[in-house]
Design a protein that fits this description.
The chain contains 13 helices and 7 strands.
Length: 416
Amino acid sequence: MGAGSKSMRFLRAALTLGLLGAVLLFAAPAASAGSSDGEGVHIYFSSGCVDCWPYVQEVLLPALQAGGVQAEAEIHDYTVPAERASLMERADEIDLPRSIADSLYAFVPYRGGTVVVLGHVPADLLAQVFASDDLPARLVVWQPEMHGEPTEYRLWAWAGDVTSFPIDTPLADALPQALTAGGPLPVGLANLGQLLPAVVVTGLLDSVNPCAFAVILLLLAFLFTIRQSRARVLQLGLVYIGMIFLVYFAIGLGILRAVRLSDDPHFVARLGSWVLIGLGIINLIEYFYPRFPIKLHMPTAAGVKTNELLKRATMPATVGVGLLVGLCTFPCSGGVYVSIITLLNASTTLAWGVGYLALYNVLFVLPLLLILLLVGNRLAAKRWARWEREHARSIRLWYGLVMVALGAVMLQWVIR
């Protein structure tokens, strides 16, 4: 009873520490990025934009002052990583989709709401905005042309699609249409139908992972061999799977935070798709040419350490196995993971991205949970382990084919 109690306490402590680490990994950058008060006017543009600074000084700031905006303006260069993170955080706070973007952003608190100015909006249009008594709580005013005389402007009030108007259209005529706009919401708020199937399919695909399968089957067979009780097998198996989930989720959060700093999320997504195709090709080459020097396997040193920990069959050792396998699984199938993360970055807000990422990782460990629950006797465990050894090469073949196909689909269809 005393040993079991200690094991349970250790399990709770390990899982708590792992979850805390994942939270800190995700939250720490956000804390530094969001240090500004958020109540003032925040203007973001690239230091390389030669027209942005004159526009801010000669048009935007005078228009804000004339419109009665009393808040002090802070200027940010979003080519600086910390400022880019601040921009993304500020956009996510108001659910501004990534597809609504330009070279200049101004977040203006106004009458208890927020006006987002994108691009170089003419002074007379800004004057109409801040003179209007009918502004919604959130409004995007967008003029995408940087050079020459603008021909149109766009409005979006978090309803329907972005609406375009000829540049000489009075705001009083355009605003009612924007408030009742039809059509699909911009990508990021109404992309459930597109992203959910992609997350589910790739999560299940990534779960068919020879690295993780092999180690859990080895763990089960070994525990039965040394006559551990079924309850103990389930306990250690759950610890192992929980650690893989935490490690993989933490890796995903770190990658998601990193790629959101990119100025071109669609380029990052395309790059992730090509990485997926490349890793799939390596799997195929390894199937046809087993002696090919590049292998997407667990490193030999990690394999030796894993076997050493497995033989102990203790709670701390199982935590160590889960940590090692979670880290070493990433090179085996990380292409799928990176590609879906870059897709989430390009197509949705940070909050939605984290939710999709959590779902992905639940699906990633789901087959491991099923194996753990279904393999209830020693004979079945040994048969599973033998089947995995016999079919490892064919699994790699199909895995490589699906990775290449998925990468091609993402390039041609999802990331247009």
